[in-house]
Amino acid sequence: MLRGTALAAAAMAGGPFQGFTAWAQPQERRGRPIGYGALGPVADLRDGQVRLSLPEGFQYRSFDVTGGTLGDGTTIPGRHDGMAAFRVRGGRTLLVRNHEVNGPVGAIGDPGTAYDPAAGGGTTTIEVDRFGNVASSAVSLNGSQMNCSGGAMPWGSWLSCEETVNGPDVGNDFTGQDNSQLQQKHGYVFDVPAQLPADPTEANEPIRSAGRFAHESAVWDPGTRALYMTEDNFAFPSGFYRYLPPTNPMRAGRLVDGGRLQMLAVVGQPNVDLAGEGGPAPAVGSTFDVEWVDIPDPDPTFAPGTTNDEAIQAVGQQGRDAGAAIFSRLEGAATRGGTVWFTSTQGGATPPGAGDPSGFGGGRGQVWAYHAPTATLRLVYESPSTDVLDFPDNIATSRSNTLVLCEDGNDGNFLRGLTRDGRIFDFARNDIAGRTDDEFAGATFGPDWKTLYVNIQARSGLTFAIWGPWQRGGF
After folding, report:
1. CB 3.0 to 4.6 Å from 283: which of 5, 26, 213, 443, for a disulfide?
2. What does pTM read for this prediction?
3. pLDDT value at 398 more than 50
4. The pLDDT of residue 91
5. What whole-number distance in Å separates Cα of residue 101 and Cα of residue 338?
6. What secondary structure, in 3-state letters, does 71-100 show?
C-alpha cells in the first residue's frame, strides 16, 4: 500500500532507508561539502592523455585496454562492464570483470573450457595494486554471452549475469546475430570464483533455476538468504527478482542450482506500474509493502519459431500473470545492512526538454531501495533533468554508504554520488576524445576504500583506478 510521499519520507528519516529524501542539488553537511568541487581535466598516468575530468587532488591510471594481452596470453576483449573487487595478498586487489560481448564470435581463451564455444562473452580476472599497476590476469569464464553486470558474493565469488536469452531455440535478436550458430541456451547467472590462477571450468555451469531472462545485477542478502536480481528488458517491462537456493551458499561455497525463483509484487496493487510508462510515476518517498510471487518455469526452452521478443518476456510474463510489479530497465544493484538499492534506468517522469528515448520508459532514471527485513520498497530518488542524472546504470556503495552511480546517457556521461539523504553530486566526467558518450560501468571500491575502479563499456574498453582525498566529500 502506498503510505505517502513527503510526510512518509520525513517520518522514516531514522528508519530502514536512512532518511533518503529528494534533493537535486549538492548541499552542505556537517560543515563540509557533499561533493568534491569543480571537475577539471586530469592526465592519465599511463600515457599523459586526458581521459577523465575529476575534482582537484584526484589522480588515475587506465589499464587493460581492449586489444592488449592478459597474463595468460589471451587478447583482452571489449565491452568491459560489471566488476567487483576482492582482497588478496600483499595489499593488492583482485578484480573480476565482465565483458558484454554479443554474437557467435567464438569463445575468448581456450574453447575447451567454454560453456558455449561459439559465444564471445565472459569474465577476466586481474590482480592489481591501488594505482592501476597489473600484476597478473587471465580469463575466468568463457563461452557466455552479453555478460552485463552481476555482484560480489561473500563466499568469494563474482556472479556474472547474461543480459540476453539468445540460443539455438530463439530467433535472432535486434542486432541480427545468427542464433542458430550458438550451441547452448543463454540468459543465466554464473558463479565465478575470485581467484588466480583462474580455471574457467569451475565457472561454466549456469544456475538455471535462477532464471533465463535478461539478467543485469545480483546481490546477496544473508538475513533472508536470498539472491536479489534485476532485469534489463530494453523494449518491454522489467522485474525485480529473488532466488532462494536449496543450500546456503556460505556453507556450500558457491551458488547451488535447483532453488526457487520469485518476482516482486506490491501488496494490494497487482501489476502496479512503478516506471511511469502507462501513467504518472510514483512520487519520491512513496513506500510500498511487497510480496513475492513464484515463477513456475524459470528455465524455458522455446518451440521452433519463437521470436527473440517473445522469449525475452517469457519468464517475466509468468510473474506479471501472478501480479508482479512493472519497472523500466532495472540495472545496477548494491546492498548493505539488509537494504538493496537498484536503479531503474529509464524510470520516472520524462523531464522537461529531455525528449522521448527509445525503449520502455520515458524517464531519466529512478533509484529504488528494498528493505529485506521488512519487505518494504521505497522510491528514494528520481532524475529531475538530464543535467543532474541521465540514465543511471551500474551502482556501488562507498565507505560512507553514499552510492556511486554510473551513467549510460547519450549526451556525455558522468560518475555521480547520491548521499543517504538523497543529495546528488558530480564526481567524474568521461573526457575521452570523440567518445564522451561511452558509458561508465562496473564501479567498485577496493577492499581498503582507497581506490575506485571503474570501466568504460565500449567496443574498445578500458579500466581506471582512481584515488585521492576521499575524506573531503561524500564518498
Report:
1. 5
2. 0.94
3. yes
4. 87
5. 33
6. CCCCECCCCEEEEEEEECHHHCEEEEEEEC
Helix (H) or strand (E) holding 311, with range, is helix 308-312
Beta pairing class for 240-244 and 226-231? antiparallel
pLDDT, position 32: 56
- Round to whole Å and give the CA distance between 458 and 438: 6
Three-class DSSP labels, 16-69: CCCCCCCCCCCCEECCEECCCCCEEEEECCCCCCEEEEEECCCEEEEECCCCCE
**Alpha carbon distance 125, 95 (integer Å):** 6
How far is it, in rounded angstroms, from Cα 415 to Cα 336? 20
Task: Dig out the grid coordinates for 99 from the structure.
Answer: 565483458
Q: Where are the alpha helices (DSSP H) in 158-307?
A: 249-252
CB 375 within 8 A of CB 343: no
**Domain spans of the chain?**
6-472
For residues 166 and 176, what is the distance between their CA atoms, to the nearest angstrom? 11
Three-state DSSP class for residue 342: strand
Is the CATH number of domain 6-472 3.40.47.40? no
Q: Which contacts qualify for 302-308: CB closer than 8 Å, 24 or more apart?
A: 302/167, 302/169, 302/170, 303/169, 304/169, 305/171, 306/169, 306/170, 306/171, 307/170, 307/171, 308/165, 308/166, 308/170, 308/171, 308/172, 308/173, 308/174, 308/179
Three cell numbers at 314? Answer: 517469457
Which residues pair with residue 137 across a beta bridge? 126
Other C-beta atoms closer than 10 Å to the C-beta of 464 total: 25
